[in-house]
């Protein structure tokens, strides 16, 4: 069954998985803006969680030839999800889920707070644990120094934010599936390191593009692009791949610490050999329709045939473990979540603390005004979003959170 609609623009067409509801006007204009770029390959795909973003919409899949748009990748390069299924069942969880949440918060720095633990400082480590330091020096230090030598402005906090969560929509959860099996799941990315890389190259692309004579009108300066063969392009790809690897390792190291925290309250469990660890803000070289292209997924997950992915809803509505169906029309992609229906500012104005408390019944989580912008009402109906992409993924597990940790 075909789920998408086709919208013809003056340039590349749009293929939109919009049966969950029409996309907002601002997001539609951004999709059209991207489709006007002359290096778009075939079409621009819009996932059912599409909403307005910087330059390009969140929830879009953009295939390009010989060029890449740094703002379409964004500043949280490599942001994504990780999930691990344990041998525990619901009945083996501790009686005090509040104590478990506090244990996880001690194990992993979050947000921009300094008070959760003596060793947490402004979203990172006051003194980086040995295991985290070893991972940094073994896997990243040499690569980072080479990047900084060429682009000194990207330097800053690096190793002391590895194995940390961040704030905003990032989270850690303990969940139950339909068989009452316990899962650990988390959402984070490349932290300040990726932010500095993304910001630097977005600005560098804008500065470079004004010096070029283009044979078309660039409708949005945030769509400034880099072309293959330029030094700036090569530098960006090197730094972007670094940030994506950093994000992947960040989630792995966080998960180790989350599982250690869980073992203090529910000892003796095992985990599945294979964990799911997937980006949803990144770019990579792939072959589609017989051509090698750059595929930028801004708020979208790779969903090749048989590939497992994670689609979270919100802090109160659970998540899905999915298996990709390899739909070429979406460039083998699916949504990365439910997608926002309110900006953070709108959510804080329109969602009351009482409404948030009601939405979070039965979940051990923060219930205060500081997280109203992440309340379930700020997001689209995850059920409708999943219904709209039945030709992209099949559901393997529905997860319901019992513990939620927010920054």
TrEMBL record:
> Which InterPro entries does its entry note?
RtcB, RtcB-like, RtcB-like_sf
Annotated GO biological processes are: DNA repair; RNA processing; RNA repair
Cofactors named for this entry:
Mn(2+)
Q: Which residues bind GMP?
A: 169-173, 280-281, 312-315, 319, 336-339, 406
Q: Which reaction does it catalyse?
A: a 3'-end 3'-phospho-ribonucleotide-RNA + a 5'-end dephospho-ribonucleoside-RNA + GTP = a ribonucleotidyl-ribonucleotide-RNA + GMP + diphosphate
Which EC numbers does the record give? 6.5.1.8
Renumbered to this chain, region (Disordered) spans 110-130
Pfam families for the chain: RtcB (PF01139)
List the active-site residues: 336
Q: Where does Mn(2+) 2 bind?
A: 187, 280
Q: Which PROSITE patterns match?
A: UPF0027
Q: How are cofactors bound according to the entry's free-text note? A: Binds 2 manganese ions per subunit.
**Superkingdom in the source lineage:** Bacteria
Q: Which positions does UniProt annotate for Mn(2+) 1 binding?
A: 76, 170
Q: Name one GO molecular function term.
A: DNA ligase activity
Q: Give the keywords, sorted.
A: GTP-binding, Ligase, Manganese, Metal-binding, Nucleotide-binding, RNA repair
- What is the name attached to this protein's record? 3'-phosphate/5'-hydroxy nucleic acid ligase
List the top taxonomic levels of the source: Bacteria, Pseudomonadati, Pseudomonadota, Alphaproteobacteria, Sphingomonadales
């Amino acid at each position: 069954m075909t789920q998408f609609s086709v919208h013809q623009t003056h340039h590349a067409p749009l293929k939109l998985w919009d049966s969950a509801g029409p996309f907002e006007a601002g997001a539609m204009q951004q999709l059209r803006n991207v489709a006007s770029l002359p290096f778009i390959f075939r079409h621009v795909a819009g996932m059912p969680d599409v909403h307005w973003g910087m330059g390009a919409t969140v929830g879009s899949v953009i295939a390009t030839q010989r060029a890449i748009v740094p703002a379409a990748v964004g500043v949280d390069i490599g942001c994504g999800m990780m999930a691990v299924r344990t041998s525990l069942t619901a009945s083996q969880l501790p009686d005090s889920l509040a104590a478990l949440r506090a244990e996880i918060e001690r194990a992993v720095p979050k947000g921009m707070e300094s008070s959760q633990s003596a060793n947490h400082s402004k979203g990172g480590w006051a003194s980086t644990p040995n295991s985290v330091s070893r991972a940094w020096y073994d896997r990243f230090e040499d690569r980072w120094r080479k990047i900084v030598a060429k682009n000194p402005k990207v330097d800053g906090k690096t190793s002391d934010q590895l194995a940390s969560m961040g704030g905003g929509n990032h989270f850690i959860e303990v969940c139950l599936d339909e068989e009452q099996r316990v899962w650990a799941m988390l959402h984070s990315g490349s932290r300040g390191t990726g932010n500095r890389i993304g910001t630097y190259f977005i600005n560098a692309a804008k500065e470079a593009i004004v010096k070029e004579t283009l044979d078309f009108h660039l409708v949005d300066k945030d769509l400034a692009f880099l072309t293959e063969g330029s030094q700036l392009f090569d530098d960006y790809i090197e730094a972007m791949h670094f940030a994506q690897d950093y994000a992947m390792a960040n989630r792995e190291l966080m998960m180790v610490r989350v599982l250690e925290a869980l073992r203090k309250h529910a000892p003796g469990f095992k985990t599945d050999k294979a964990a799911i660890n997937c980006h949803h803000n990144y770019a990579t070289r792939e072959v589609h329709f017989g051509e090698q292209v750059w595929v930028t997924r801004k708020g979208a997950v790779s969903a090749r045939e048989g590939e497992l992915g994670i689609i979270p809803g919100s802090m109160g509505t659970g998540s899905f473990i999915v298996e990709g169906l390899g739909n070429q029309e979406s460039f083998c992609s699916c949504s990365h979540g439910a997608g926002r229906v309110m900006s953070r500012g709108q959510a804080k104005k329109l969602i009351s603390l009482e409404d948030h408390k009601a939405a979070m019944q039965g979940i051990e989580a923060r219930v205060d005004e500081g997280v109203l912008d992440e309340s379930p009402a700020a997001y689209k109906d995850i059920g409708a979003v999943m219904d709209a992409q039945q030709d992209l993924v099949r559901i393997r597990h529905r997860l319901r959170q019992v513990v939620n940790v927010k920054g």
